[in-house]
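Quick one, tokens below:
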């Protein structure tokens, strides 16, 4: 009798395991379909906006780095390449400092915004919250100078808990500083 109960329990457990395997298989198939769909959407996005984003991001990065890098390229595999001003070499960004990566990321975000804005034919307001907190003084000044230029055509709201941003921003015209 004990053997039969044990055997019955094993069969029930195997049945549960089989149903769990079927559920997991359905989930795996769903995830694979989602990944393929995301790849398709990204490829369409890259084809539609890729050249524009590379161009605008490169121009922004050029301003942020005082002309150190001429161009920025984002590949379909999300690799970032920069063209050096002095050597004209195209270098993989994976070897750059964290400060340069912050600039690359900022330039990429702004390049995406600029490209979408151009495609839509509409100005896009910008809201930043302590986005420049890791910048050294030189990088911060260049980023704020760029944001001031961007703000001549678009609304920019920069929230910060840092005095550096306030001090540098006071040197620009048409900047409203509100302390809360």
């Amino acid at each position: 009798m004990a053997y039969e109960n044990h055997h019955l329990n094993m069969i029930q457990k195997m049945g549960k395991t089989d149903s769990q395997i079927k559920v997991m298989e359905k989930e795996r198939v769903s995830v694979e379909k989602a990944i393929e769909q995301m790849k398709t959407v990204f490829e369409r996005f890259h084809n539609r906006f890729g050249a524009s984003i590379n161009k605008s991001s490169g121009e922004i990065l050029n301003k942020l780095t005082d002309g150190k890098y001429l161009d920025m390229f984002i590949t379909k595999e999300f690799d970032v390449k920069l063209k050096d001003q002095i050597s004209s070499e195209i270098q993989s960004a994976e070897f750059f400092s964290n400060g340069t990566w912050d600039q690359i990321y900022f330039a990429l975000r702004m390049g995406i915004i600029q490209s979408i804005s151009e495609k839509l034919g509409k100005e896009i307001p910008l809201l930043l919250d302590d986005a420049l907190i890791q910048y050294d003084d030189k990088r911060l000044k260049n980023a704020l100078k760029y944001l001031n230029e961007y703000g001549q055509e678009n609304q920019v709201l920069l929230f910060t808990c840092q005095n550096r941003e306030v001090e540098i921003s006071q040197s620009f015209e048409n900047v409203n500083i509100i302390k809360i």
